[in-house]
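--- STAGE predict ---
source: upstream dedup step, 1 unique chain passed
mode: sequence only
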Amino acid sequence: MAAFDSDHVIDYAENFLVSYGAEDWSDADHHNFEYEIEQIVDGLSRTLRKHFANWIRGLAIPLLGTVPLVNCINRRAKFLNFNYTPTLQALYGVQPRQVLHIHGSAVDPDSLIVLGHGWERQANELLSRQVDEDTDTRVAGGYRLIDDYFDDTFKPTETILAQNQAFFDGLADVTDVFILGHALADVDALYIAEIVNKVPVTTRWTISWHKTPETERNRFSGYDLNAELVRFAPLSTL
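--- STAGE serialize ---
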């Protein structure tokens, strides 16, 4: 969705931007430009999000005993979960109150499933900034629809952090942090940095790796931590 081409959408919708002086003008032409844009952005944001959420909620959790489990899971721990599914609750017996699904929970029908995050549109990219007193009101309305699409679809990580600050503020007594099955991609770096800032400096860190540890080592090296308190291990051994 980050590859959304607003210029292409506008070019397409301009086919329905009929001149006010056109011989075949009708009242519908007041709205056709905005309607076409709305159909596109609605399909990309709300409809796509709905289908994705339905797919996530339809995923079956493996039955206990049919898949290998991670041994280091402590049911009394606090969990920051980037996974939408209730795997922790179903396979490890973790109470829901112990888990923060930072991007939404598949089992909560009212939970907002976050598809796009970690990317923020700059002020100079807002189409509405191009609107002035000479702008066709239909064009201005279309620009606002596109700006709203980006606001609705892409949630800046700072916003998500602020909405869940209580969880991070509650990490002051954490002695061990396990990062399991996470790629440590830049898009989630602010979450990791917030944990680093909130836990004691004496906290021990364990980061799992899948094939080789080099990627995780490189990505984790940017955090201000005592290297002696950080270890990397294959997920299968934890």
